[in-house]
């Protein structure tokens, strides 16, 4: 959280993370912005939005080579902002299928 990483040709920037309280069902929701490093910096990102650990296909990166799945909220430094723990459960995810 709070920094970007480069994986292959992708730059991944998590900006916000919500984590369910320990007594609730496991869920992590992360707001990500994903850019391709071979594209100009001012171009639109490949993905900008929320990804959910319990439903990776609900909101996913559409890329022919790379796939991103959120597993957990993690901060490399304790001085950085920790994930927000939700007191209320996340709303149920509804599918339009």
Task: Please give a structural write-up.
The protein is mainly beta and 97 residues long. The protein has a domain at 5-68. The protein has strands spanning 5-7, 10-20, 28-36, 47-52, 84-86. The chain is built from no helices and five strands. Strands 1, 2, 3, 4 and 5 form a five-stranded mixed sheet that branches. The termini are far apart.
What percentage of the residues does DSSP assign to strands (E)? Answer: 25-35%
Global structural class: mainly beta
Low-confidence blocks of residues:
none
The shape is globular
Q: Number of helical runs?
A: 0
* Terminal residue distance: 33 Å
How many beta-strand elements?
5
Helix percentage: under 10%
- From the alpha-carbon coordinates, what is the Rg to the nearest angstrom? 14 Å
Rounded mean pLDDT score: 77
- Main sheet properties: 5 strands, mixed
Order of helices and strands: EEEEE
Main attributes of the structure:
single chain, mainly beta, 97 residues, globular
Concise structural overview:
Helices cover 0% and strands 33% of the residues. It has no helices and 5 strands.
């Amino acid at each position: 959280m709070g920094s970007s990483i480069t994986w292959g040709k992708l730059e991944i920037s998590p900006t916000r993370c919500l984590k369910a309280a320990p007594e609730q069902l496991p869920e992590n929701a992360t707001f990500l912005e994903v850019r391709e490093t071979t594209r100009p910096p001012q171009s639109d990102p490949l993905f900008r939005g929320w990804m959910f650990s319990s439903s990776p296909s609900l909101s996913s990166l559409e890329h022919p080579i790379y796939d991103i799945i959120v597993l957990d909220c993690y901060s490399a430094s304790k001085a950085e902002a920790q994930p927000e723990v939700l007191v209320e459960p996340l709303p149920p995810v509804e599918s339009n299928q």
